[in-house]
Structures are given as structure tokens and as C-alpha cells.
Design goal:
- By secondary structure, the protein is an alpha/beta fold.
- It has a single domain (4-39, 82-369), classed as Ribokinase (UDP-N-acetylmuramoyl-L-alanine:D-glutamate ligase), CATH 3.40.1190.
- The protein is 39% helix and 24% strand.
- It has 13 helices and 14 strands.
């Protein structure tokens, strides 16, 4: 059995070889869009320019609990404003990695919101609705995403046809090696859009090199029947695409609850067993789960997991999962086995949370060569 170091060395060699290929893969990604405000919560303020942040979600929860039955003031300080949403972040990361991207989604209408200009500069962009907004309260051990999502109600099949058109949509999807629909939870009409794409024969027949990557995005607030219906529609995409479903740890547990699957132990081995049970009940080619410190994948033929370059005090965490998805999808586009795809996924997210920027191929090569010490 390969050690983690040997697996990374093999992934590094494969990526170095793939960089010599003249072929540039194409991706079609959609359909959400958020303006993200990355926010720290003030614990103690020293002066107008200096403060100590509340470091953990538990301490923030305690602050709120202490105010129950009374009231309190909580100061929020915006650290940066950036493009957001599962789709735009993943698309931007793919473009940074050299993929030719077409993005369709809620990026501002009729005018593109300025925060999405960097994505527009490096990709082909079609905006069909106003962008939603997220206040992302970041802590050292996680984040709370406060979303204002009413604009996503306008992401419908009717709007897509009116503002992009069937011919252009068909052309872009059929030209893509990767088709990725993200953020099902927050787009109320996405199941309708999926069904219309299938029924309107927008997709070509299945081919070995054509991949579909899907991410539900925290389905806890959706009804179980809606989740099960979405999973049924997802299975129908296998007529056209090699379907990969990506989940973070919480999403995997939520989906297990809907399917009546015992969650088991919070260890890599326990989560692998959970993922195998999920894969057995879902009609997908591969299931990918990415907890914070590692990531795993299950297919019909194998189950693999790899450790990630975990960092105790990240520069940013909002978008880490989307960067993992971009790195994993890059590996899939290159025809890599699941273990290599996982290593590219954790390398991509690891670079992002350390630096606050999307990696280029050179950054993935560097992090695979010089794996960070997880204790630092």
C-alpha cells in the first residue's frame, strides 16, 4: 500500500507530465453567484485600528447565549469583499489552473457586478440574474455563512432561455469536457433546470472523457423529498456524463440521515465506510467527501483517502471546498486516478487557505514537492 508521501510523489510526476500537453480542457460551470464579505467578529477593541477577534465558533455561540433574554452588541469588521458562490469560486480556480471556462450564473443583471470582473477577464461569462450576498463570519475553526439569497429565485429555465438562449447554452455545454452544476441547496429552481437540460437534449451522449461534477452545498434546510428527487435527477445525468458528487463532511452526514444510513465514527476509516454506504445507494460514478484534514473518494472499484496540508490558522476558509473541487476536477480532466485527483484537490485548497489566492499549476507543483508540516 502506498504511503501518503509516495502517493504525492506519483501525483507530482503525473502532473509534471500533463503540463506538457498542448490540449486545454474546457469547462462549463454554473449557476449561482454571490458577493462575499469576509468578516471577523470583534472580541475586545483596543483602539480605532486594533482589535482582538473572537477566535472560535464556540466562543461566539457563548457570547450570543449570554445575551439570551437581554440584548447585546456584536461588532463585525469586513476584511475583504470578493466574488463568491460555489460556482464562481470553482470557475475562477479552474481558470487559474489553465482550464478554458464558460461560466453562467447570477453575477449581476443587466450589468455585471464589479466583484466578478476578474472572473470575466479570464473566462467567458454569461450573467442571467442579480447576485446574492453572503456575510461570511470566519473563525479559526470554521465559518458561519449568513446568506441573502432572494436574487437566486430568478435562476430558472425560463430566465436561462431568455438571457442566454438555447443554442448558445447547447453549444457551450456540448463543447465542454467538464460540466459542473453547483449549489443546488440555494437555487430553489435548480432541479427544474436540471430536468429541462435532460429533457431538451442539451447534453450529448456519454463519453469516457466527459465529466459532470455536482455539489449540493449544505442541504440541511431542504426537505428530504426534495433531496431525494434531486438525487434521482442526478442519476439521469449518467446517460451523458461520468457523474461525480462532491460533499463536505457535514453534507455527507446530512445525506446519510436522509437515506437512513448510520453515520459511524469520525475517523478517516469511519468516513470511508460512510461514503461506501452512500455510494451504494446513489446513482453516481464517484462520491467524494472532503473533511477539513483529509479527503476521500469512492468508486465501484476502490475507496481511497489522502491527508491534506491542514493549517491551524488559515488566512481564509470561505471557498476552500470550492478550491478542492477545482483541483479534484482538474485531475479528473487529466484522466488521473482518484488518489491523484484527491491530492490535487487538497493541494489546491491547502494553497488557497494559506495564501488567500487561487493556485496556478506551478503552485500545485510546489506544494506537492514541499508538503507543509501540519503542526505548523
Amino acid at each position: 500500500m502506498l504511503s501518503a508521501e509516495e502517493a504525492r510523489a506519483q501525483c507530482l510526476a503525473a502532473l509534471e507530465e500533463a503540463t506538457h500537453s498542448p490540449n486545454q480542457p474546457r469547462a462549463f460551470v454554473g449557476l449561482d453567484g454571490f458577493v462575499d464579505e469576509i468578516i471577523h467578529v470583534v472580541d475586545k477593541r483596543e483602539d480605532a485600528n486594533h482589535f482582538d477577534r473572537i477566535p472560535s465558533m464556540a466562543e461566539f455561540a457563548a457570547r450570543i447565549a449570554e445575551a439570551a433574554g437581554k440584548s447585546t452588541n456584536i461588532e463585525l469588521v469586513t476584511q475583504r469583499v470578493k466574488l463568491g458562490g460555489n460556482g464562481p469560486i470553482m470557475a475562477n480556480a479552474l481558470a487559474s489552473l489553465g482550464v478554458n471556462v464558460t461560466y453562467v450564473g447570477a453575477l449581476g443583471y443587466p450589468n455585471l457586478h464589479p466583484v466578478f470582473q476578474p472572473l470575466s477577464d479570464r473566462s467567458e461569462v454569461f450573467s442571467i440574474a442579480e447576485a446574492a450576498h453572503t456575510d461570511a463570519l470566519e473563525f479559526e475553526d470554521g465559518k458561519i455563512m449568513l446568506g441573502k439569497m432572494t436574487p437566486l429565485n430568478d435562476v430558472t429555465w425560463k430566465t436561462l432561455m431568455e438571457r442566454m438562449g438555447r443554442d448558445r447554452l447547447t453549444e457551450r455545454i456540448q463543447a465542454a469536457h467538464l460540466v459542473s452544476f453547483l449549489n443546488w441547496t440555494m437555487i430553489p429552481n435548480l432541479s427544474e433546470v436540471w430536468t429541462s437540460i435532460l429533457e431538451e437534449k442539451i447534453l450529448p451522449d456519454r463519453a469516457a472523457n466527459r465529466i459532470g461534477f455536482f455539489d449540493l452545498c449544505d442541504p440541511e434546510k431542504r426537505e428530504n423529498d426534495d433531496i431525494l428527487k434531486a438525487m434521482e435527477i442526478l442519476g439521469r445525468f449518467r446517460q451523458h456524463l461520468r457523474v461525480i458528487l462532491g460533499l463536505n463532511e457535514k453534507e455527507a452526514m446530512e445525506l446519510a440521515d436522509v437515506l437512513g444510513i448510520e453515520i459511524g465514527e469520525a475517523t478517516p476509516e469511519g468516513r470511508c465506510e460512510l461514503a461506501r454506504k452512500l455510494h451504494a445507494q446513489l446513482d453516481v460514478d464517484a462520491l467524494v467527501v472532503h473533511p477539513v484534514a483529509y479527503a476521500l473518494a469512492v468508486t465501484d472499484s476502490e475507496t481511497v483517502w489522502v491527508p491534506g496540508p491542514f493549517v491551524k490558522k488559515p488566512v481564509i476558509t470561505t471557498g476552500a471546498g470550492d478550491h478542492f473541487n477545482a483541483g479534484f476536477s482538474l485531475g479528473a480532466l487529466m484522466g488521473f486516478p482518484p488518489r491523484h485527483c484527491l491530492n490535487l484537490g487538497v493541494a489546491s485548497s491547502g494553497h488557497y487557505v494559506r495564501s488567500g489566492r487561487s493556485p496556478e499549476i506551478s503552485d500545485l507543483l510546489a506544494i506537492l514537492r514541499h508538503w507543509p508540516d501540519p503542526t505548523e
